[in-house]
Write the structure tokens for this entry.
Amino acid sequence: MKTEQEIKEVLRQWVLTKSKKVTDSELKFDTHLLETRILSSLHVMELILEVEKMKGTRFNLKNIKPGVFNSIDTIYSSFFGSPA
Amino acid sequence: MSQDISKVAKILTAQSIKGFYNPFTHIKFPETLDRRNWFTSPELISIYGSSEWEALSEEQRQTLSFFETVNFFSLNVHGEKSLLEGLSRRLYDNNDADVTDYIHHFIDEENKHMYFFGTFCEKYAGKIYPDRKLIFPREYAEGEEEFLFFIKVFVFEEIVDYYNVTAARDERVMALSREINANHHEDEARHLAFGRVILNNLFKTYSPQWSTETLAGVREYIKNYYMTTWREYYNPDIYIDMGLAHPYDLVSRTFESTKAKEHRATASRASLNYLKKCRIIEENFEL
């Protein structure tokens, strides 16, 4: 089972691979991903699949709010931080 | 709006009136369906030609064709819901009465299609696969939001039409699925014609005013939207319903395969060529 830091790092690497708008040194766990347009709406579908894959479960997408994807910290706390 | 759009809208309205039908009696939905049928062409199935495909029996492949069709029809339900929202917002939003008239028909026909697709999914699968797309608000340059709305319609409908035409012409495919695909293609031919003209017109009107950064952003969006649209054709929910091992890995592996890339290139060629011809994109790109 991965630790919080390990999961956040997997997510950080995913963002770096998908977005050309941020460098390794710039991207922190609390960097705002949407306001800065590091990620767009179009990335989010892929990100949801990635998180589902990591968790091994499908989400009820109706409950997903935009704020969830603000940063790696918020993605972690929304999907991994507490039992679903 | 230019005279071209007005003229095209008028012709399309006349054709829509001529082809008007009652959706609730137009297609007969039997109580049950035998899943030992091809519901779409095998070549359109996401994992076609892969080792996973080769490992399936004929009956399993046909069952997979059912779930792939449920996914395809679900994508259409979600796509048409967004389209209806967008088109409704544009009713009486311009000075061209011919365009407004045609938007009424466009909405009417999309609503009918959604009824066919939704009925099939609910009646025979008991569900519509959920949509994983989320839209976040952002700011746009003048005309950019309008252009991006119609580019999304264009990409979505052009890819869908490739699947509709292929399945509708395929005699291996069971009658109901062929009928739904054929009917959709028939109406979509008009929507595609309208979409192409309006897209070209919007680009010609607004792109000269856009900054280099905005134009580059629009072109990047188009490429990303193609990719996102295509990704939905490789849905882990299908593989979960089929009981295939490691469904999420299968999605990634299949999407990245040479065979899948070739398929996407073939199915997207005509629409990319049109965008290039209109100088909306500079070069065709790999999908």
The CA atoms of residues 13 and 81 of chain B lie 21 Å apart.
